[in-house]
Each structure stands twice: as structure tokens, then as C-alpha cells.
């Protein structure tokens, strides 16, 4: 049974989410504050964490950052705030997805299943190190290296880079990437844009070096072969 931790200060919303997720077959539990949620995750780690942004004390953005420093658990923001700035800020803090309230539980459950599939280790045949100029992708180790130095990336960033490397030189649309990386048939394309931006900041630190990730206006993104 998949464990879900719901960090939400509104008692009614938290209880309704926990009960609805239990009806969907999840082992769900709640926390009313970020501090309580962080302690709960340390004590008995959930497979997925849902976080509201408007929390008392430590807010949702900082909660996400603190979770991400020690854990690669999939994080989904569930918030009434639908401003683009808030969505981008939450994703940049380390969230994997963003769902706007009111929540359709069937849609949320589908997204949780997709995140769980991505998080589950898959046995693969040995894959050689993939090299694109000074960029190296090591599939077996889940590592990314630039100029020989390991660059820390999240699970989502790594999977996004692997998908682009598998189709190096070809343009993949945002919707294609949402389907292949997130497992979503449709969705908010800002998920892709923000994660591409985070990857660029990590693998293209030297402004004088050749770019690896290219935006093709109106079409999508591609990884340059050389």
C-alpha cells in the first residue's frame, strides 16, 4: 500500500483528503504544520508528500526546500494559489507537481500513481555513459557530470535529461515530455519549463560554454548532440 503524507493546516481539507485517499487505496495520514510533517516524514517516511503553501510557521515553500535537502520523495503542492509566480516558485523549491484546489481526487490519484511509477527502481540492462561535449549522463549510477564533476540533480531532472538524451538532436514537445517523464496525458506545461530551467542552471553554469539544452520556439526542447 502506498503511503501519502498530507501537510495541510485546514482540518476539514486535511481530513477530507486523507479519507478520500484511503478510499483510493492509499495509506494516508495528515499533519497540520510543516514542522509536524517534517517530523512525521523523518519518523516514518511516506512514498509521496502533499504540501499546502499557506501553512502557519514554516510555509509550504520552505517545507518543500527542507524536505528536498534530505529526501528525494515525490512532492505535490496542493494549493488554492494558482498564480504563475507561486507555481514556478514551488517547482523551483523542489516540488514535482502542482495541483490547484478544489482537488478532483481521481485526477490527484492518477498523478500520484504516475509519480510512484517514476520513483520505482527499474532493472535495466547496462547502459554506457552518454557523452555530449562536456556533459556526461551515467544511467546506471543516476549521475550527471559536467567537465568530470558530478552535478546534483533531482530524480525528475535526471529522467527529463535521459529522455532528451534518448532523442538527442530531435525536438520533443512539452506535451511529449509530460507524457514520457511525468506519465501525464496532458497537464500544465510549466512543469516542463521550470525543470528545464533548473537543469540549464546546473549543466550550463559557464555562460561562455556551448549550450546543451535548446528551446525551439513553438515546438519544444532538444538536447544538442555536440
TrEMBL record:
4-aspartylphosphate PTM positions: 52
Domain OmpR/PhoB-type: 127-225
Keywords: DNA-binding, Phosphoprotein, Transcription, Transcription regulation, Two-component regulatory system
Example of a GO cellular component annotation carried by this entry: cytosol
DNA-binding region: 127-225
A biological process term (GO) from this entry: regulation of DNA-templated transcription
Molecular function terms, GO-annotated: phosphorelay response regulator activity; transcription cis-regulatory region binding
SUPFAM superfamilies hit by this protein: C-terminal effector domain of the bipartite response regulators, CheY-like
Keyword Cell cycle: no
Keyword Cell division: no
Short name of any one Pfam family annotated for the protein: Response_reg
Response regulatory domain location: 3-116
PANTHER family the record matches: REGULATOR OF RPOS, TWO-COMPONENT RESPONSE REGULATOR ORR33
Protein name as annotated: DNA-binding response OmpR family regulator
Amino acid at each position: 500500500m502506498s503511503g501519502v503524507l498530507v501537510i495541510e493546516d485546514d482540518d476539514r481539507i486535511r481530513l477530507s483528503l486523507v479519507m478520500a485517499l484511503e478510499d483510493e487505496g492509499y495509506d494516508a495520514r495528515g499533519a497540520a504544520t510543516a514542522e509536524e510533517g517534517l517530523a512525521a516524514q523523518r519518523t516514518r517516511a511516506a512514498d509521496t508528500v502533499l504540501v499546502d503553501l499557506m501553512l502557519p510557521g514554516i510555509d509550504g515553500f520552505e517545507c518543500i526546500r527542507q524536505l528536498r535537502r534530505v529526501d528525494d520523495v515525490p512532492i505535490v503542492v496542493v494549493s488554492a494559489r494558482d498564480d504563475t509566480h507561486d507555481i514556478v516558485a514551488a517547482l523551483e523549491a523542489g516540488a514535482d507537481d502542482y495541483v490547484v484546489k478544489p482537488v478532483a481526487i481521481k485526477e490527484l490519484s492518477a498523478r500520484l500513481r504516475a509519480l510512484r511509477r517514476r520513483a520505482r527502481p527499474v532493472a535495466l540492462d547496462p547502459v554506457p555513459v552518454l557523452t555530449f561535449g562536456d556533459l556526461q549522463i551515467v544511467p546506471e549510477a543516476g549521475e550527471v557530470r559536467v567537465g568530470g564533476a558530478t552535478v546534483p540533480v533531482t530524480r525528475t531532472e535526471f529522467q527529463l535529461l535521459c529522455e532528451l538524451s534518448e532523442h538527442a538532436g530531435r525536438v520533443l514537445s512539452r506535451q511529449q515530455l509530460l507524457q514520457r517523464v511525468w506519465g501525464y496525458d496532458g497537464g500544465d506545461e510549466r512543469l516542463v519549463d521550470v525543470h528545464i530551467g533548473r537543469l540549464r542552471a546546473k549543466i550550463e553554469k559557464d555562460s561562455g560554454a556551448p549550450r546543451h539544452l535548446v528551446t525551439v520556439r513553438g515546438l519544444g526542447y532538444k538536447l544538442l548532440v555536440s
